[in-house]
From TrEMBL:
The lineage of its organism: Bacteria, Bacillati, Chloroflexota, Ktedonobacteria, Ktedonobacterales. Keywords: Repeat, TPR repeat. InterPro entries: P-loop_NTPase, TPR-like_helical_dom_sf, TPR_rpt. TPR repeats lie at residues 544-577. This is Tetratricopeptide repeat protein.
Length: 891
């Protein structure tokens, strides 16, 4: 690539587009270039890297002292958020020597001392410090000045999880560091996937540019600049060469390289049929002079990094000494960059082989010269020994950073897989399971990508095992739909023997995917099947896990007795086998059930013990932060139910801070909804003008939850719609609220979330009544009542009866209103003691507001009505309250 930087060829349209984009004061801040080809096998080698380097030169000419940072995701060390931030700071300090990133440097020093550069806390600390420093630089710059230009190459290697390159946990890729003078250019093989969470709703931020192969005129310019042969643009040979290469710069460059090195003549080259051209051209590399030819093949196999130190290390291997000779390092350093497909690394002493050329060399050269893999096995064994040495702690050297340790681990995994697929997969499973258990999905994704390169060498059972882990990672990344597609594929394609051994795990993971999508009936089905298999195999650990998950689903459905029964069974098992992590999980869940039952003290005790255990496990490095957030959120809910709003808000805020750090979007959405409910609760305790501000804040929180949860967490998404509807209802905007309720109901029906369907119908019923659509309102209430009665949703039945009572009370039909209020009290009593007390208080307060002659007939009707209800004798407070009001109001 080096020679073409000096003699850049063609691309006038692409260069003009870049100049217009960079000069435009209102253009999107991201420019994304990708291959124009649709067929995957035709992508790559199109000249994107070449174009990016030319863009960098133009940017320097246009913007003067702009800070330019070039990141190539092919290099594992470049797939690191902190390294990208550091290079951005270094470039800005050179461009603006009057500025210094003192806060960032201080935070970076602190994280280095703590040996903690990848945790969420460290990331947020560094991000906040950098934002602070850049705000100071912002004050020194003109409004539309471009100060930082980031280039990201080979984006396709991280496109499934681009957040590995983002410093702040609350931001998406690319990370601008909240610096308005940042511009970004990204180059990838594929178009942007706008349905991916990272890109959803961001079309206005991006300008896309498709890159096509060289035109005949552009190829002619390249030939004039680089070929030692004279090949006129209009000659027959030039036209044939363009046809054979299809205008792909990677093949044009290689053709000129082999012609210039005289491994083939032009007549021989243009005589090759097109369908054989690629497989004829690429092997010409092996005809280059020794050692250049072998070094290129070594580079293709070593893959991740290559330099002279690694070459010396490899050449100590006995099997390789005889094939490479006369290595003159100075000559090699000079010769390698003369080839069109080799470039020097932007940092360090590494040489980089174009990723498409690596594929071609592996496909067409190694197969001929190493049919039994003997040489490549030797190279890989040498590299494994090299990485083991690098990973080994040596007193004379500073300890590896976490980023370096991860890079060496991934690179060694590749060679372990090549030498022995079974040993490599065992190493992969060990590393993958460990990092995913700590919620480090970014590292897990890199490990998976490395293993996926060897799927063709895996037998079917190994492939199915890999697919299970891919699905687990997707679920951890909150992409339950994609995970479920993989699991269903495995369920239908796996053979009987593999299924017999893995059916329990497969069904459990499928159940988890359905649960994430709030498809509770399907989740129950698969967890039950998984539980039964575990019981038959006497696997008490997996049995307990499935029973606990079923308990959670029953709690979601409001079947609290079933939930308690399942949780108690699970707790007994975990005590027996001493599983502290799982014990804490179920204990926290049990506390949640006690919350629904109004047993506040028991709920708090369970959850605080669970939180203590989880914090101890976190300190021991056995869990990540997510369980801590779940404990804090549950405690917030308990205090919310107990109407301790101050404590509830404190715990919710602590939980969401963790969720932002670990980028747990479902948790973020759910907690935003809960913080919105806190704001609503404040309204009931504040003056009207203050309350209006709280309602507006609540609406903003619910809207943020809707955005985060969209296409990710249906439960939180529906909840956010319903809560926004309630805010609009309180503001008197009944038609708008009804529309939001309908949207929520539609989503709930689609995913069979009966609870939220019934809840939405109850809200809709109230809105329609205010809109004077009485018939439609009653229809909504009857539908809601049928669902809630069938599914035993006592809380929703209580709320629905209360709303019906309110509507008749407002209309002045007091007798009818109190019939509903009596049913409200009864359903609340069936739900929990706290709700029953609240319902009785409302009944009493509203009765007292009436006159004596109104109260007497109402009470005389309510008491016999109450006594006809099943279990009414278990709740004598109702009759006592009615009699007391009637007696005290006699005068």
């Amino acid at each position: 690539m080096q020679q073409t930087e000096q003699h850049f060829i063609g691309r006038s349209k692409e260069l003009a587009s870049f100049t217009d984009w960079l000069n435009g004061p209102t253009t999107p801040w991201i420019l994304y270039i990708h291959d124009a080809a649709e067929r995957q096998e035709k992508k790559g080698g199109i000249g994107k890297t070449w174009l990016l380097r030319r863009y960098q030169e133009l940017a320097q000419q246009i913007c003067g002292n702009i800070a330019i940072v070039a990141i190539d995701f092919f290099n594992l060390t470049n797939r690191d958020r902190i390294a990208i931030a550091k290079r951005s700071v270094e470039a800005l300090q050179i461009a603006y020597p009057q500025w210094s990133a003192t806060s960032f440097e201080k935070a970076l020093h602190h994280t280095a001392e703590e040996h903690d550069t990848t945790s969420s806390d460290a990331r947020d600390s560094l991000s906040a410090a950098l934002v602070t420093d850049l705000q100071k630089l912002n004050a020194l710059l003109a409004k539309n000045e471009k100060a930082l230009l980031l280039f990201f190459d080979t984006y396709e290697l991280v496109e499934q999880n681009p957040l590995i390159a983002v410093l702040g946990t609350r931001r998406n890729f690319p990370d601008s560091y909240e610096f308005p003078h940042t511009r970004v250019v990204i180059a990838g093989r594929n178009r942007i996937n706008w349905s991916q969470p990272n890109w959803q709703g961001r079309e206005q931020e991006v300008c896309e540019l498709a890159i096509a192969p060289f035109s005949p005129e552009e190829m002619a310019q390249y030939l004039d600049a680089e070929s030692l042969y004279s090949i006129p643009a209009q000659s027959k040979e030039a036209k044939i060469l363009h046809h054979l290469t299809e205008g792909r710069p990677i093949l044009i460059g290689l053709a000129i390289d082999v012609l210039n090195h005289r491994t083939i003549t032009l007549p021989e080259l243009v005589a090759v049929p097109q369908e054989e051209f690629e497989q004829y051209l690429v092997p010409q590399i092996s005809k280059l002079e020794n050692p250049l030819n072998w070094v290129l093949m070594f580079m293709a196999h070593v893959y991740h990094r290559f330099n002279l130190t690694i070459l010396d290390w490899i050449l100590q291997t006995e099997d390789l000494k005889d094939i490479v000779y006369h290595v003159q390092q100075e000559k090699l350093v000079a010769d390698l960059p003369t080839l069109s497909f080799v470039r020097r690394s932007t940092s360090g002493d590494d040489f980089v082989l174009h990723d498409e050329m690596r594929r071609l060399v592996t496909k067409y050269c190694w197969g001929t010269h190493d049919p039994d893999h003997r040489y490549r096995q030797a190279i890989s064994r040498a590299m494994i020994a090299y990485y083991k040495q690098q990973l080994k702690q040596q007193p004379s050297k500073p300890p590896l950073s976490q980023q370096e340790h991860q890079a060496y681990t991934i690179e060694m995994l590749y060679h372990l897989l090549f030498v022995d697929i079974q040993i490599g997969l065992e190493y992969f499973r060990e590393q993958f399971d460990a990092v995913l258990n700590l919620w480090n999905s970014s590292f897990a994704r890199l490990l998976l990508q490395e293993a996926q390169q060897f799927t063709e060498q895996m037998h079917s059972h190994q492939l199915f095992d890999l697919l299970l882990r891919e699905a687990r990672l997707l679920a951890a990344e909150e992409n339950a739909r994609a995970a479920l597609e993989i699991l269903q594929k495995v369920e239908h394609q796996a053979d009987t023997k593999w299924l017999e051994e893995h059916r329990e795990t497969l069904f459990s993971q499928i159940g988890q995917c359905y649960l994430q999508q709030s498809k509770l009936a399907d989740a129950i089905d698969y967890y039950t099947r998984s539980r039964d298999i575990a019981h038959a195999h006497n696997d008490i650990e997996k049995y307990a896990y499935n029973v606990g998950q079923l308990g959670y689903i029953y709690r979601r459905q409001g079947e609290l007795d079933k939930a308690i029964k399942h949780y108690q069974e699970t707790i007994a098992v975990y005590k027996t086998i001493d599983r502290q992590r799982d014990y804490a999980d179920v204990l926290n869940s049990m506390g949640n059930v006690y919350r629904f039952l109004g047993r506040t003290d028991e709920a708090l005790r369970c959850c605080k013990i669970a939180l203590r255990i989880r914090r101890q496990l976190l300190e021991a490095g056995q869990i990540g932060e997510r369980p801590i957030g779940l404990s804090l959120a549950t405690l917030g809910l308990i205090y919310m139910n107990a109407e301790d709003i101050v404590q509830a808000e404190r715990y919710f805020q602590a939980a969401i801070d963790i969720y932002y750090r670990i980028d747990y979007k479902s948790g973020i959405a759910a907690t935003l909804n809960r913080l919105g409910q806190v704001e609503i609760a404040k309204v009931d305790r504040q003056q009207a003008e203050i309350g209006h501000a709280s309602l507006q804040h609540a609406q903003e929180l619910f809207q943020r939850a809707e955005v985060v949860a969209y296409a990710l967490d249906e439960e939180a998404y529906i909840n956010s719609l319903n809560k926004q509807g309630r805010i609009l209802a309180r503001l008197g905007k009944r038609a708008e609220s009804a529309e939001l309720y309908r949207r929520g109901i539609e989503h709930a029906r689609r995913i069979q979330d009966h609870y939220q369907e019934a809840e939405g119908l109850i809200d809709l019923c109230e809105a329609l009544e205010y809109l004077e659509e009485h018939e439609a309102s009653q229809q909504a209430w009857l539908e809601a009542k049928e669902i809630a009665s069938r599914e035993h949703y006592a809380f929703l039945l209580a709320r629905g009866e209360e709303i019906q009572g309110d509507l008749y009370y407002i209309a002045g039909n007091y007798m009818k209103a109190y019939e509903y209020y009596a049913e409200y009290c009864y359903q609340a009593a069936l739900y929990n003691e706290l709700a029953y007390s609240k319902a009785l208080r409302k009944l009493s307060d509203s009765l007292v507001a009436l006159t004596s002659d109104q109260i007497t007939p109402i009470v005389d009707a309510l008491i016999p009505l109450w006594e006809t209800k099943e279990k009414s004798k278990d709740y004598p407070q109702f009759v006592a309250a009615c009699n007391e009001i009637k007696e005290f109001m006699f005068f």
